[in-house]
Amino acid sequence: MRISLNWLKKYVKIPVSDEELIRLIGARLVEVEGVIDETTKYNNIYIVRVVIAEKIPETHLTLCQIDCGEKDLVQVVCGAPNVREGMLAVWIKPGAIVPASVQEDAPFVIGKRKMLGKYESNGMLAGADELDFGDDHSGIVEIDPEMARPGELLVDVFELSDKILEIENKSLTHRPDCFGLVGFAREVAGILGEKFEVNFVRSSRRAGRISQSLTGPAPGTVRYSARETFRDSRGLAQGSRNLLQISIDNSVCSRYTAVVLEKHGEIRKKYLTWQDTILAKSGMRPIDPIVDATNYLMLLTGQPLHAFDYDKFVAVGGSAKPTIKVRLAKDGEKLVLLDGKEALLNENDIVICSGDVPVALAGAMGGESTMIDENTRNIILESATFSLYNLRKTQMAHGIFSEAITRFTKGQPPYQTLTVAEECAEMLSDGFKVVDVVDQRSSAGRRLENENSFSFCSSPTAVKITTDEINGLLGTEYNESLITKTLENVGFEIKRKRGELEILAPEWRTDIHIKEDIIEEVGRLLGYDNIEPTLPKHGTAEKNKMFGLKLAVREAMKEFGANEVLTYSFVSGRLLDKAGLDKKNSYKIVNSISPELQYVRQSIVPSLLEKAYVNQKIPFDKFALYEMNKVYRKDLGFNDEQVPVERMQMGFVVAERKGVGTAYYKAKYYVSKLLAEFNIEPEFLPIKSKAPMNLPFEDKRAAEIWVSGQCIGVVGEFKNSVRRNFKLAEYLAGFEIDLDLVSELATTKKIESDFEVREKIDETVTTKETYAETLAKILKKYPGAKITPVGIYQPEGVETKNITFHIEK
Amino acid sequence: MTELEELKQELKKLNTGYAKIREVPAEKRGEFGRELNAKKLAILDQIRVAEEAALDTEVEAIDITAPCGVNEKMPEFYSVLDGSKHPLMTELDRVISIYQLMGFDVMESRQLDDEFHMFDSLNFAAEHPARDGYDTFRTEEGLIPPAHTSTMQHRVLKTYKNRLAQGKEIAVVVPGRVYRNEDVDATHEHTFYQCEGVYVSKNCTMGDMLGILREFFEKYYEQKLNIRTQPGYFPFTEPSLEFMIEKPKALGGKKGDFLEMLGCGMIHPNVLKMAGIDPSEYHGFAWGGGIDRLVMLRYGLKDVRHFEAGNLNFLKEF
Q: Is the domain of B272 the same as that of B167?
């Protein structure tokens, strides 16, 4: 959202510098993403009178002599069809930059040049597109002679020396009121400690002439005053013109106000208006007087409006008694929108119907069949509020992100639909008069009949709170009168009752329900930055065993020359296939970014194999990768909280491009030494189970890791098929262990005394048995001794091997 | 003939079948072709499985109990100079150590959770659009890889609420991995790390929250810092704030150059209530912020994608 500081200043007096104002808005209202500085954008651009305009024969050009407030006339060649003698135009002086190009890398500087070889042209007469006020390139801009005189600077007449704030919408999600300038200004007043008095603003009594009130409504003095006009129109409506019925689905539309306007004259869209410049600064484009009026009021109040062609609307419905029906769409229903595209609707979308025929996608976009055009005689102005939940989905389903739906999806409150519709009718009153007003509220809709129907909003609940409660949560010492004044400045009503404040939120604040909401208002408006940071007392933290374990693993593995990696928790179905795992055992992501990230991983090792390939390609000759992270598998089931059981696992892969020897022993060495750090001495037993963790490993060259009767992991080489699937070199092994189990088993490492003197011998056993069987015998022979293997030697052609041990008795 | 050879024979037969397509009436050729292709794919799949099985049978068993291979050297570690710790983990350890010194317990976040913990228990109204703002992933079962570590708030409150009865405070930090369904670029990752903090006591204030956060960042950056806040919106805190620090000089910061570090606020009474804590007796505050950003700032890294790329050229720098 964009906020013009000049526009803002029309509604609130700002005693501080722009820089300070922007800082305060950031600290106390909303994130300001950026500031567009337009203070020099319109330099050297003047209002001029075209004194003489002569057609240059056989061209579309006109040779003009213009009065730019100086003694002499200046000659300019103009190509626009609408240039004529006597008109006030906008002149970009030679040397000035074309405003529409100021953001470009090479802004376009207007010069003095010869046209057709003989007509000197000094500068240019500008169109709306060149001035960055719209896309209109059909002619040059014309200025109302009541507004300016030749020689005046454009920037002064239209107050164009401005700064535009770019507001981060997300941080105002809960504040629909701030999506209108009036609401934004109210907050700014509150931040500055001033009372905001403007309730609703009448910018001009006459349509299309907002530019006349350039000085704008002064803060605190202008109040809504359109009632007389409306009373007249209401007279008409009550008298004879019962033109429209409304029927709404209460669950998706809280209020629907329709005003029927009848054409009685032409709206002149001839002069550049101040309203056009506001639309442009707010990031919108002037289109035609009716659409511009609805857009301007939306920017001002936050309430979006829509205009239907009444006669087309009646024709589409095909009934003598036209009815506006608001309902949910049927699945598969179709509607051609204003942009000419056919939308395929679903049962979440809300549609506006004539009778039962959809004519607009509520809150999002009007339909082509009831679009207003230059022949439109009668208009239905819609001012309504719809369910933000439905519109939120509509926005996503149809990819419509207009200024209107952005406001609706914040949950515009229904209190001002009639007021804004009325204001719009007033702005268009040069060309249209009100002939019917129907206002339907959910549950109890009724035709506008008496003065009281103005205050439609249900009364908000009062919040009771004490100043101690406010200060107690914020850590402040604000007194009651400061708190009261701060809240009253932005429209809260406060009664003092037996030491408590009874606080009533204004009708535009739908977000105030509990004490904390009031505390937020006070803390925010008075500035969180004014709260003194303090430190509460604290106890001593408990040790977290897993955190300590992982810290120790990292220390050890770095010493061991291994590299810690992090890989995604989500993997592809192909990766699971490649590692020989069952996809059906993985939780599947339904809205994954890509097939590469479709399954929650069951173990760590497959991800590491993928990274091993990346690194062998780089190429790194040899490395050991490991990762510690959580894994989930369907076969683990759910825990007491009804969420999947999780395990913290460590995966490890060692890979060499030109390695020789048996990689299994390298991986086993790593895991043995690592577990020894936690005083765990595992046994390595043949793989028996089909546990998912075991699946990538080759049974004949891998082992389960057992400690105290439970299996804590697996170590070994991978199946040939797995290794080939990951395109890895032959020397490859790894392990995967369950760190939750390791954490349970871990004890502090015993520190061995260096002073103990032991007798040392080497002993070689010649055997056909396995190492473990041989070791068992040695241990029996030397009880209590410390035994380390030295090597295993098997001479060629011999069936027995020689195993050598180093024994410290 | 082995199974594999049989399969290959069958494939050959099938391939000759394609020639027969000319004999099929034109209107039925599409169907004929599709059937043939399906059969071919099925056989190719069977061949792949058979080939893998054959590959895996040509394996020599080893003595898994031995410390080394026969006639091979005893295994050794790679050089300590090759070893590295992941910078994200190193910093996360550091962050946690600082909080522990400040009296905070540690509870690691889950990586697969449910709607209740991710949203309901945090005062997100049912169907509220704020839920969409988190761009969550979902599994077929409706489970959610959490989009913020706040998914643990309810558990922290329930697990530690007996502390309150003992007259102590709840002070816990929750580090963890979180996920958002967004496109990856130099500054956005779908997978990243956060650290949450939760503090509840009888009389803590927003001033205390600002004090703790400033203390943490001053310890983390080892210097005095200017702090700043701006209003924010989270359904589970009220009031809600964004917390900023002035960019530390050591990181090339200039005066007035503020960085958004985290979101924070006073815990919403509904969140306390859901966990069985009486909000009229206790209040608390919570915060959560990204770790990746801290690390990038600290090391001057420009591309968040390095963290999960597993590239040793990057990792060995740490």
A: yes
